[in-house]
Specification:
244 residues; alpha+beta; six-stranded mixed β-sheet; 14% strand
Amino acid sequence: MKLLLLPLLFQALLLTSAQTAAQAPAPGPSGPTNVTAILAKAGQFTMFIRLLDTTQEASQIDTQLNNSNNGLTIFAPPDNAFSSLKSGMLNSLTDQQKVQLVQFHVLPTFISLSQFQTATNPLRTQAGDSGAGEFPLNVTSSGNQVNVTTGVVNTTVSNSIYSDGQLAVYQVDQVLLPSAFFQTPAPAPAPVTAKPKKGAKSADTSDDDSDNTGDSSDASELIQLVFSRVMIGVSFVATFYMIQ
């Protein structure tokens, strides 16, 4: 009888151990936070991971996470969001614009989904201050839905990929394009024609006056010459008659 009970007791111990293991929380990630590893585990973020690596923003994010208490929030567009972009758009961006594009998806503080309801717009991103109107990012929250607007793109947060109180990673349905990439440069100002200086104008006027004065002097000299000759002639005639 005892021999029959031993297998049953052993099976009960195995079942109890399995249930205990199932109820235990999954172990957290070991080592420092690695954003590309988080995105790779989630899947469907190949293009965004490539941008993070080529711009070296991935290492910047990991360094900031492991050496700061402010935390970060990342909006991650999946591969199909990049596929919907205009053909050749990414290749047309400069290296600096690619860095700005990645930074535009990163907020310099940790924001949970519930905190979006009280967030102050426009949100500041790693791309720079939004006050200049070049990198505005506005977020509105209604219930469980979070809408993100850039002035060029309107999209929603479709999934929470990762959150540990320091880093929050959210999936967005579209690539967040900043309005700075689509602003038309202001036309160059027309050349201004320099006005003549007053001194130069006075000099010209003086030259004209000098010319007029010279003409008057010549006329006076001519009159004096004619008058002198007339007087000589009159004197000669008078002398002739006196001799007679």
